[in-house]
Amino acid sequence: MKNETPLISDDLLRLIVCPQSGISLEIDGDLLVNAKDSIGYPIVDGIPVVDPKCAIDILQNHPR
Question: pTM of the prediction?
């Protein structure tokens, strides 16, 4: 993946929520982030992977 911000439309971003808490997510580089709970979900080839099994602890930078 290139070092570019993934293109996810604002309309799509408004629909995507954290599957663990229901909180809205924000784009941070190549992750969708739930800042409140420090959870990140990868964006792979422009596709958000919002699966709890793929969640990353953004403070520890390792899988949850």
Answer: 0.82
